[in-house]
Specification:
elongated, 5-stranded mixed beta sheet, alpha/beta, 10 helices
């Protein structure tokens, strides 16, 4: 490439920020991609795959920095950590996504296990009062100091608590996140976020932990969007074509999406209803096995098979009954999902079970 064309491309980049188009290099009509991320993706793939060459037959191993030529694996560098946001109940899901069952674990534990293949420095940020499973030494758990302040407040807490220099930040409803994807974004050694379908994915991004103070300042000025923090960090946008995969963006935001994904994973899975206290006497049984589905569908099965237990009143859960997922989380939304292997505890509210 001529020096004149390179200079022209650099001027174009300066005009638009950290994104360069293919058109700047005369390679194609206008699709916005990051030239520097293209090089990074090639380097990353060469470092983590068996074939050390790109699509043009160039031996990338000769162009990689020493750390990528058989040196220390990126995933165990203490420079890198992770922050996992699980801020409590989701209005659309009707219950905390962190506690949803996924592949034999809670969603929170499953995502932690993915992150643990990359880093030992994992911080979980939970909402006040949210009961999380025992994570042992797998992660440090901190709470939002003020509830319901949004994801930027959680990011601030996580960055403050993380001892690494850079932290990969993700929400808990990311069961399709892969270690390769996390390593790729961390390999830039700077603030970086993917841009997918025209939107910056600020909750699947890398932030410098030193930006915690900047996040606090933004919150104090009621600028609570995580994108504002990325902009303050002069972040790099990575175009969709440069990403190792789109899979991490398959979030499960509502009961239908979650149950559909579970049915693909586990087929005709079931859950168990357990009756406690006086409800056990009315049901004339201790337990009942039901198909996975919504709480509404479980309630319909209960009322059909246990006629003396009438859980609904006016289309909602009757006030004199309590429902709980495994004793960790009470639920009143009939739209909330009941996942595979879960126990739905049914008890009388007045007697406390």
């Amino acid at each position: 490439m001529s020096q004149r064309r390179v200079a022209s491309a650099r001027r174009g980049r300066a005009a638009r920020g950290n994104v360069v188009s293919q058109h700047d290099f005369g390679e194609g009509p206008g699709d916005r991609v990051s030239w520097c991320t293209s090089a990074r993706l090639l380097e990353f793939r060469a470092a983590h795959r068996a074939v050390p060459s790109d699509d043009f037959g160039v031996d990338l191993a000769t162009r990689l920095p020493p750390a990528h030529q058989g040196g220390r694996p990126l995933e165990r560098d203490p420079k890198y950590g992770a922050v996992l946001l699980c801020g409590g109940g989701s209005r659309r899901m009707g219950r905390a996504k962190a506690l949803l069952p996924w592949r034999g674990k809670t969603m929170l534990e499953y995502v932690i296990d993915t992150l643990a293949t990359v880093t030992d420095q994992i911080v979980v940020v939970g909402a006040p009062g949210l009961t999380l499973p025992d994570l042992g030494s797998r992660a440090r758990v901190v709470e939002d100091r003020v509830a319901d302040k949004g994801p930027l407040a959680g990011i601030r807490e996580g960055l403050e608590a993380c001892p690494a220099e850079f932290a990969f930040v993700t929400a808990t409803d990311a069961p399709f996140l892969t270690a390769e994807f996390v390593r790729y974004l961390l390999s830039f050694d700077r603030a970086v976020a993917p841009e997918v379908d025209g939107y910056v994915q600020s909750l699947t991004a890398v932030y410098p932990t030193a930006a915690a103070a900047t996040a606090a300042d933004l919150l104090a000025r009621d600028r609570g969007r995580p994108l504002f923090l990325l902009e303050a960090c002069d972040y790099l946008r990575v175009g969709e074509a440069e990403l190792p995969s789109r899979e991490p963006f398959r979030n499960l935001n509502n009961p239908d999406a979650y149950l559909a994904a579970v049915q693909v994973e586990e087929g005709a899975a079931t859950a168990e209803v357990e009756f406690l206290g006086t409800t056990r006497s009315r049901a004339d049984r201790a337990t009942l096995t039901v198909p996975i589905g919504t709480v509404q569908q479980a309630v319909e099965s209960i009322e059909s098979q246990c006629p003396a237990v009438s859980l609904r009143e006016g289309g909602a859960l009757a006030p004199h009954y309590l429902l709980s997922f495994d004793g960790r989380e009470f639920v009143r939304s009939l739209a909330a999902p009941l996942g595979p292997g879960e126990r739905l505890l049914v008890m009388d509210a007045a007697a406390g079970g």
